[in-house]
């Protein structure tokens, strides 16, 4: 027997050391995240492993799983607690050691293993931990699997049995790096800043970019799990500004920034200006659809309207579908539609053949960006960006909202704008042209300006993004319109950053 997890235990007590603690809110829509020792303890992680092993068996999948861990002071101990639970459930565990998340996805293919459980808190601050899971490569769990996993773990519906085993794969990163770099070298001599924020990608990204033919300027690539400079998140302005300074100092062709677990890549052009990932997606879509006729793309609801309106994409016959934000949703939709690629504004990019295997890998994205520059030898990164129709867009802005209330607030905001549309009322001085409600609400008005409000899938936050093809002022008008609705909800707190 294994005890039923408690939602709250006090650290430094007998109870904390002798029973599992698992806070229910850690089970997110498509992965799991907790504040370690405040919301989950090691026995709670062990329970998660037992629950995951039981779910894999229930899904009718072979109980064989790849695991690895990101570079944080506590991630290895969490991984070993998870492994003990998986083995208790009868799983054969393949441990690849310290890894970026896409290395674990690659291992599913390379080792021919159906399941994955990667211990990572991604770009979350220190203190957070989590697990990205899947049982059907290249996909990761969605809400159905996460809901069932939550039920199994919290109710201790374990099905432990003998037969579990453990195998450590020595020097596995070399296989991953060889796979990424077995391609023709770039013809163009590119100088790139490779920024890792002292996160896990620092162990691998510089040598990968060098091996494809880049001159690499390393920035914060030394592993340091205290993250002394800033959190490794290429959506945060602090990291982008550090990359900008290095690009200008070294006269680099581009700056490439990788998040804490290496599945996203942020871009700064040769003038030091950051290019938001959705615009990078449009640039890549232009490049890819020039080679592959009538290409299909999938983008998330936070992304620029240019995917639909760009005349170059239209001329090349490219088609784009908007879908729910979230790496798991986007990965699944890109796979279902057989799209050439999926692009998410957060920087998760999903390349299908011939570019990738369908999972998100920041290094595959970085290689695609370098190959795009290689195919345009007379153009700089800024030239390619400036060739896009001009839009004014915000970064992702996140006001605090508790996990227990964020979905209710998002639902109320959707209903508010649906009522405005029905009554013909105006938003930011114009009538609503279009509402997309697959994931929160994306409100587009007559001049093409739009604003989005949705609940974050992995943090106690809402997500707000605005864009205008008209002017910076119209972008700000849309932000005021969205924010004024949020201010009617006292549960919504301060923003992490604002325009």
UniProtKB/TrEMBL annotation:
Top-level EC class as recorded in UniProt: isomerase
Pfam families: PGM_PMM_I (PF02878), PGM_PMM_II (PF02879), PGM_PMM_III (PF02880), PGM_PMM_IV (PF00408)
Keyword Nuclease assigned: no
Residues of the Alpha-D-phosphohexomutase alpha/beta/alpha domain: 26-159, 175-272, 278-390
One MF annotation (Gene Ontology) recorded for this entry: phosphomannomutase activity
Residue ranges of domain Alpha-D-phosphohexomutase C-terminal in the record: 414-483
TM regions (residue ranges): none
Keywords linked to the UniProt accession: Isomerase, Magnesium, Metal-binding, Phosphoprotein
Cofactors required: Mg(2+)
InterPro entries assigned: A-D-PHexomutase_a/b/a-I, A-D-PHexomutase_a/b/a-I/II/III, A-D-PHexomutase_a/b/a-II, A-D-PHexomutase_a/b/a-III, A-D-PHexomutase_C, A-D-PHexomutase_C_sf, Alpha-D-phosphohexomutase_SF
Catalytic activity, EC: 5.4.2.2, 5.4.2.8
Family: Belongs to the phosphohexose mutase family.
Protein name as it appears in the record: Phosphomannomutase/phosphoglucomutase
């Amino acid at each position: 027997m294994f005890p039923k997890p408690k939602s709250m235990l006090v650290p430094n007590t007998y109870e904390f050391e002798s029973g599992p603690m698992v806070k229910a809110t850690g089970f997110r829509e498509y992965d799991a995240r907790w504040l370690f020792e405040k919301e989950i303890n090691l026995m709670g992680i062990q329970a998660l492993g037992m629950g995951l092993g039981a779910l894999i068996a229930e899904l009718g999948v072979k109980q064989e799983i790849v695991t690895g861990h990101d570079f944080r002071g506590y991630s290895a101990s969490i991984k070993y607690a998870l492994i003990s639970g998986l083995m208790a459930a009868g799983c054969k565990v393949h441990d690849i050691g310290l890894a970026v998340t896409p290395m674990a996805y690659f291992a599913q293919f390379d080792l021919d293993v159906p399941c994955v459980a990667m211990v990572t808190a991604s770009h979350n601050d220190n203190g957070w931990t989590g697990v990205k899971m899947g049982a059907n490569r290249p996909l990761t769990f969605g809400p159905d699997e996460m809901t069932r996993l939550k039920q199994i773990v919290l109710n201790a519906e374990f099905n432990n049995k003998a037969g579990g085993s453990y195998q450590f794969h020595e020097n596995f990163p070399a296989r991953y790096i060889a796979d990424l770099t077995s391609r023709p070298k770039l013809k163009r001599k590119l100088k790139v800043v490779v920024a890792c924020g002292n996160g896990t990608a620092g162990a691998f990204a510089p040598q990968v970019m060098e091996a494809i033919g880049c001159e690499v300027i390393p920035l914060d690539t030394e592993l340091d799990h205290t993250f002394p400079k800033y959190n490794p998140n290429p959506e945060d302005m602090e990291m982008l500004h550090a990359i900008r300074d290095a690009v200008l100092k070294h006269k680099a062709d581009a700056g490439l920034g990788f998040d804490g677990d290496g599945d996203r890549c942020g871009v700064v052009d040769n003038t030091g200006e950051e290019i938001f990932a959705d615009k990078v997606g449009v640039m890549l879509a232009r490049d890819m659809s020039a080679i592959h006729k009538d290409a299909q793309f999938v983008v998330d609801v936070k992304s620029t309207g240019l995917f639909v309106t760009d005349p170059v994409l239209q001329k090349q016959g490219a088609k784009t579908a908007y879908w729910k934000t979230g790496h798991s949703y986007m990965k699944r939709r890109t796979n279902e539609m057989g799209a050439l690629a999926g692009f998410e504004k957060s920087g998760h990019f999903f390349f299908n053949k011939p570019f990738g295997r369908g999972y998100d890998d920041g290094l595959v994205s970085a290689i695609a960006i370098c190959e795009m520059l290689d195919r345009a030898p007379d153009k700089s990164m800024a030239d390619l960006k400036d060739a896009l129709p001009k839009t004014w867009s915000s970064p992702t802005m996140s006001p605090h909202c508790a996990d227990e209330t964020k979905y209710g607030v998002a639902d109320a905001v959707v209903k508010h704008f649906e009522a405005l549309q029905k009554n013909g009322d105006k938003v930011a001085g114009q009538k609503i042209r279009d509402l997309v409600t697959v994931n929160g609400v994306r409100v587009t008005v007559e001049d093409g300006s739009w604003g989005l409000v949705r609940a974050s899938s992995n943090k106690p936050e809402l997500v707000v993004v605005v864009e205008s093809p008209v002017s910076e002022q119209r972008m700000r008008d849309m932000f005021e319109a969205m924010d004024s609705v949020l201010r009617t909800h006292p549960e919504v707190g301060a923003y992490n950053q604002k325009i």
